[in-house]
Specification:
With 168 residues, the protein is α+β, with helices and mostly antiparallel strands. It has helices spanning 5-14, 36-49, 55-59, 65-72, 105-117, 149-167; strands at residues 22-25, 81-85, 100-104, 125-128. It has six helices and four strands, in the order H-E-H-H-H-E-E-H-E-H.
Length: 168
């Protein structure tokens, strides 16, 4: 199905991701190196370690302290989180951290797959392109009155880890 920019945004709104920007690409089948998966796994660890500057977004993923630390240290991906390509390798995307973003597997990654698959065969594909490394829909970032000790604690931990890394 060929979408326009407006219809792509409308479809994402129907999928409850109305704050997700899109980027237009003209898919060109690209040969992927045979060792892409090995390189991808290394890249995922680098990407996970780079998430220390995304503590505010990570807080909204409701991670335990152990999951948070394992994630930003590049040791383990918590359940229900996915690292996605902004532009798939087979369409010319690069194996670079700038071509990755993190989101919840269910429902967001599943909905993004549905959105992309609906455009199968189109000359122009509209791909999700969140502005930050971690995608959390705006309707999930608002809360009630009161403080959030978890936010403060995780932000402090991320700042300390970032500071320690800059000293190395």
């Amino acid at each position: 199905m060929q979408l326009t920019h407006e219809s792509a945004l409308r479809r994402l709104s129907e999928l409850h991701m109305d704050d997700m920007p899109v980027v237009e690409i003209h898919p060109t089948p690209t040969q992927v190196d045979t060792n892409w998966f090995t390189e991808y796994k290394k890249l995922c660890h680098q990407f996970m370690k780079s998430l220390t500057d995304s503590a505010e977004e990570l807080v909204f993923l409701n991670l335990s302290q152990n999951e948070f630390m394992a994630l930003i240290m590049g040791h383990a991906m918590p359940q229900n989180l996915s690292i996605r390509f902004r532009v798939p390798l087979v369409w010319g995307g690069k194996l670079e951290t700038d071509n990755l973003f993190l989101c919840q597997t269910f429902p967001h990654s599943h909905r993004l797959d549905e959105f992309i698959l609906e455009q199968n065969g189109a000359n122009t594909i509209w791909l999700p392109n969140p502005p930050k490394k971690v995608y959390v829909p705006i309707h999930e970032t608002t809360g009630g009155d009161g403080g959030n000790a978890t936010t403060d604690r995780l932000s402090q931990m991320a700042a300390q880890i970032g500071k320690n890394r800059s000293m190395e």
